[in-house]
Design brief:
The structure is a homodimer. Chain A is an alpha/beta fold. Chain A is about 35% helix and about 20% strand.
């Protein structure tokens, strides 16, 4: 068994320890006896532990003194011992069970020395897939201090390791997109093109990442590229849904891709056109490319998120394009494929080095179509690094009819 | 555009209206001026409206007098007008925006006549993908009465239309599983087999459902069948994760499938063996099949959920199998792929006609492997109907080595 795979973390163990150290430092400063995490992605962020999140709670806790424990359903115990570095693994038989998992958690936490004041990412286990249960404060009798804002403030600035994983994700998004573009032809449906692209890209990605890659959950997880119904005039609906539409000459298309690497996401999207673009398509397409450049130029440490969206809005206004505006410039991205802050007129968060954003201003016209390129960028000390590398010009993105 | 697809609901409009009528009746009885829904699947349940759920709130509300409104981000307005029957569509420019969407919602609700006491499925929009915002009570100044328990009590008993969609889902799960079984051979990886099965099954399913099917969201959505790492001795880990493992003779496998039809899910899983089963594999396999039959026989209106799990536990105890026990007998299923109630010793919910459950007792041994068949059943007036049709015997589920 051990020879078949050698699970390794994508983020170095020392970095995970340093993240936990920062959270512990905060907890101690607040006079807390330790902290408890219920959220799957927070647990992944602090421990790299990957699991299927269901109505059965998985809980990670650390005492102010540094001792760690993970609480899982009984059937996870053997896997956790084999695939993770957790020294202390506690379990409950089942959910809901004769004794509720939160009651068992209370005993585990008491034994770990968590009492009086405990930090937690939320009041209790979230109501996933039919879960119901008492709050942490109720089962422990302790005061529960919220930690989500502190955790989010850590996650928003990505480390070099995190940016490296997002960069790798961007490479596979681009690979999947090249295949999608190749398979997108008149007479083919959006479903056929995207299934084929995802199939081939995932095999290529897993082969390239090798045996030590452990970022899958389902066996079909990997790289994908496709559409979500933004085909023809439906391309003007920024969040359309798919209808297995057959491509035809004259269609404007907007794509989407995904390739989480150890959970970390880049985003790459392109507007494409099947057959010769009309003048009006070309006009909106070229303005979309230009608006993206405006955002690239505006994004740097020290400005506010709203400033970047404001620069794009000024470009639209100066070019009489406000009529075609439908969505803000972008959002942060990382372990979640959308995160705060947002490149939006209403978000005054200061931009800092290490933040990673999508840059995706779009123009939408109900008769011509919708145009949106999305790229992922990391904020550096004095500007940005673009993490997704794919052509943006109309010639490269015109598909033969 | 209109000729390419004719979006239709999977649940008849009259049934959706009747669902809303029941919720309104409850609201009026409680003296509420109307109700508000934030949860994506609750909105789907009461309106069949399908959309991509993100940090941008989508909210449905109905006044005690029956007037409906949907609040969406600006870029959804044209699609909602084209693809849904909503007469009143309100919008906000963006999230977070200069004016928070919840403030705009408050104005919309006031105009609809919702005041003083309002029912809602939750306190506000949930914290999806970086969303933050004020609670409904805060922005409206009204008392907010929780409705989730009432809604769940409606959703737990499925109608004939719902059972029909779950039955159709079961057909496509079985089709995908036949392909998965065909593609699972020594030397092939779990990823290759599942991608190929999902690819072919999705194309077949969409072709069969025809142009009026509108249950996709992404273009690659359809039917899938695969593994989640339960291969070889890892099959004894009930919730393993995939590692692109290559199949080899002697492997015990546990599969999973998915094929939501207009959002409704069946679940079909099988234990399989590559090459001639050992005696010990055969023993655990056959007991798994027998335990499933015990549950089929025990499930009927009038018993409690715990009774069904109890019957399986007694079978395990009588046959000295408790050592191999890791999980309860099953869970309800519908618009969510796990729902309450649970066929679990700790769940005393009475079984009623119209409830739909997975039946999936399993046996797990760290050296032999894990064995679990999951089938989906609807509770009828006097027993059950099995909605998934796939062989369960060891001969049918042995793969040539």
């Amino acid at each position: 068994l051990e020879q078949r795979t050698q699970p390794r973390t994508g983020i170095p163990a020392a970095e995970l320890e340093s993240r936990r150290g920062r959270l512990l430092e905060h907890a101690r400063r607040e006079g807390l006896s330790g902290y408890v995490l219920f959220d799957q992605q927070y647990i992944q962020y602090f421990t790299s532990f990957g699991f299927l999140s269901t109505e059965r709670p998985v809980v990670f806790a650390q005492s102010a003194g540094g001792e760690m424990v993970v609480l899982v359903p009984e059937f996870e115990v053997e896997r956790v011992r084999a695939e993770t570095a957790f020294e202390r693994v506690e379990s409950y038989p089942e959910y809901p069970g004769i004794e509720h998992p939160m009651r068992i958690l209370a005993t585990v936490l008491a034994d770990l020395g968590l009492r009086d004041a405990i930090g937690a990412d939320q009041a209790g286990y979230p109501g996933i897939l039919g879960y119901q249960g008492p709050a942490l404060g109720e089962v422990t009798g302790s005061t529960v201090a919220p930690l989500a804002a502190t955790i989010e403030s850590m996650m928003v600035r990505k480390s070099e390791s995190e940016v490296a994983l997002i960069r790798e994700s961007g490479r596979w998004c681009a690979h999947a997109h090249r295949l999608l573009q190749k398979f997108t032809r008149p007479g083919v449906t959006e479903t056929e093109a995207s299934l084929r692209a995802g199939h081939e890209a995932t095999i290529a990605m897993l082969n390239a990442l090798g045996d030590t890659y452990g970022g899958q959950q389902a066996s079909s997880d990997g790289a994908s590229a496709g559409y979500r119904g933004q085909i023809g005039r439906r391309s003007s609906w920024a969040h359309a849904i798919a209808h297995n539409i057959e491509f035809q000459a004259g269609d404007v298309l907007v794509t989407e891709t995904s390739a989480p690497i150890w959970g970390y996401n880049a985003e790459l999207e392109r507007a494409m056109i099947i057959g010769a673009p009309t003048d009006e398509m070309r006009r909106l397409f070229d303005h979309t490319v230009a608006a993206q450049q405006v955002a690239f130029d505006a994004l740097r440490p020290g400005v506010k998120c709203a400033d970047v969206d404001g620069a794009v809005m000024r470009y639209f206004e100066d070019n009489n394009l406000l009529l075609y505006w439908r969505q803000h410039t972008g959002h942060a991205i990382g372990l979640r494929n959308h995160e705060a802050p947002f490149l939006d007129l209403g978000d005054d968060t200061p931009v800092e080095p290490g933040m990673v954003f999508t840059i995706e201003p779009g123009l939408y016209d109900a008769t011509v179509g919708g145009f949106r390129h999305s790229d992922t960028v990391a904020v550096t000390a004095d500007g940005i690094e673009i993490l997704t590398d794919y052509p943006s010009d109309i010639e490269s993105l015109t598909i033969p009819a």
